[in-house]
Structure formats: C-alpha cells, structure tokens
Amino acid sequence: MARGDLLGAVVTLPMFPLGSVLFPHMPLRLRVFEERYLVMLANLLQTDQARFGVVLIERGHEVGGGDRRFRIGTLAEITQLGAQEGFVGPVAHGGRRFAVDRWLEDAPHPRAEVSELPDLEWDPELAGLRSDTERLVRRTLALASEFAEHIWPPDVELADEPAAAAWQLAAIAPLSPLDQIELLRATSVEQLLTRVAELTTESAAAYESPWPEADR
C-alpha cells in the first residue's frame, strides 16, 4: 500500500489505541507485550508496508481492551524493530491523519475502516506566525522543565520542512492529550499554529504562577 493509496478511499487498518496522541512527522516508541498486538506486529511484518493506525483512548486503559477511542488518528509506519525480555519494542514514524469511519470487531486485535485526511498545505505568509509560535513553545518548555518530567527539551531540533515543523511544534508543546487531539483535527496550518500558541500560552500561565505562601 503506497503512501497515497488511502486518500479518498476507505480501507481497513490494524489499530493501536494509546493513552497518548501521535502527530504526523513524530516518532513513536512502543513496548508491546499483549498477545493481540504481538499477533498484529507479526502479521504486519509479513507485508511490504508495515503500517497501523494510532488513536487516543478516550476512556479506559491501554491494556486489556474494553476502551473507548477517539475517531481521528495518525498512520504509523514501523521503521525499526527491537526486542527485550518480555516485550517487543518497535519504533514507528507518524504519517498522514485519518478519520475512523467504523470500528470492527477486536479479533484478533483492534481494526477499523478509515479514510485518510489530506495533508495541511504550507503558506509562506505564515512564516512569522510559525516563528512566534516556536519561540513561545520553546520558552514554555524551558519553564515546564523545572516542574514536569518526560517533556521535550527546549532546544529539540525541528524539521526543515515548515508544515512538518508545525506538526512537531504541536507535538512537543507541554499540553494535555485532550488539547493535542484538538490540534490533530486542525484543517489548516494557520489554525494549527494559532491554537498551539493559544493553548501553550494557557499552559505557560500555570508554570509562571507564584507558589502559594505556606500558612504561618
């Protein structure tokens, strides 16, 4: 299945619901130990295109099934496969977004009929907005690093291609998964960058607030 084969067509994809959002142009590292996903990986690795869909879990847990899932997600293509005792550790790369048209039976693993969404097109007139948003995100990451773990470093390198970099800014900004799923639904780069800036400004306010004085 070539990269553009999904666009305009409904296809069935193996799915991997997660407690986090995968954005286009971002890496994904997994620790796979559940039997159903080991089966999924084994089947994928027998094909020419080892791709699956990633969606955010709306309610429930990653392990065990029975979860409720959002209906927008991102294609993930496996680029590396490692294994350690007790689990398999694939590395994948985020591709195009898709909308879930219909969930199928989770047998032997989650599957869905999906329609791929078009890429966002870059407008050179957005260069100023992109630069301002990047400065804001990097500044907020520097603030957040004093309070939170497992966030991106403020000097993380972004892609040279501006539309890809816009998605990466959405991914590295210190935001909640619910904020991120809103960003994943963006219909233009301008909308994406504007909301990244607005949501990051709200996030930065929490880190800049003074600590309450202890009772004396």
Strand content: 25-35%
Oligomer: single chain
Q: Per CATH, which architecture of the largest domain?
A: Roll
Terminal-residue CA separation:
67 Å
Gross morphology is: globular
CATH C-level of the largest domain: Mainly Beta
Task: Supply the helix-strand structural class.
Answer: alpha+beta
Number of helices: 5
Total strand count, please? Answer: 6
Q: Give a quick account of the main beta sheet: strands, pairing sense, barrel closure.
A: 5 strands, mixed, barrel
| Range of helix content | 25-40%
According to CATH, the fold-level topology of the largest domain is Archaeosine Trna-guanine Transglycosylase, Chain: A, domain 4
What is the radius of gyration computed over CA atoms, rounded to a whole number of angstroms?
19 Å
- Spatial order of the strands forming the largest sheet: 1-3-4-5-6
Summarize the structure.
The protein has 216 residues and is α+β, with helices and mostly antiparallel strands.
Textual characterization of the structure:
There is one protein chain. By secondary structure, this protein is of the alpha+beta class. The protein folds into two domains: 3-116, Roll (Archaeosine Trna-guanine Transglycosylase, Chain: A, domain 4); 124-208, Methane Monooxygenase Hydroxylase, Chain G, domain 1. Helix content is 31%, strand content 28%. It is built from five helices and six strands, in the order E-E-H-E-E-E-E-H-H-H-H. It has helices spanning 35-44, 127-144, 162-172, 177-184, 189-208, and strands at residues 10-18, 27-29, 51-59, 68-84, 87-103, 111-116. It has a five-stranded mixed β-barrel. Helix 3 packs parallel to helix 5. The radius of gyration is 19 Å and the shape is globular. The termini are far apart. The mean pLDDT is 87.
